[in-house]
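your task:
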Amino acid sequence: MLFNVPQFINIEDKIVGPFTAKQLGWLVAGGLILMILWNILTQEAFIMAAIIIVAVVGALAFFRPYGQSFSQFLFFSVFFLFRPKIYVWQRNYDNIKVLGKISAQTGEKETPKHKKISSEKIERISVLLDENRSIDRNDFSLQTNIASKDNFSGDAKSKISRIVEGVLEKKEKFEGEKKPMRISFSQDWGSAKSQVDLPDNPAIRFKS
């Protein structure tokens, strides 16, 4: 089955001879204006007005700049003159809630936060290491079997203090079980003199 596809849809139909409906309308309007001015103006004034009217009507009827009628061209020209030439997108941030900063999108790396140990806690652990005794806080005992603190360097003491403090802070976990915890340091800890030489984890076990 064949269908007729319309072609040249941008060409208007001819109504009278070579003139379209719009062209014929402009010519009729221009002729009426000239007839009115013939009866009103003098001959010299009529000739000057007729030249202007004929030029305007001829442009509106037959001149097609950029494939469009002259009336549309005038309309878009005025529209272009009074509209802004640069468009800026203005985003409204009033209704936007920032939930949080995502470091993966910005490429930033979060630096790990080291827990600060007060001087009082370090002093308490130092006493524990010197006396080689147990600390009992509400049925929570910590037994240490290590050498004197003089056998350790400053880095080693700091690491031992952090490990022991970490165990003490988990006190609530063992209060319900009423089981004391024993932390024993292997022989490698006794001979360690620096942060690098220290083993990663001490031997931690429950006391029966």
Q: What stands out?
A: Residues 14-82 form one domain.
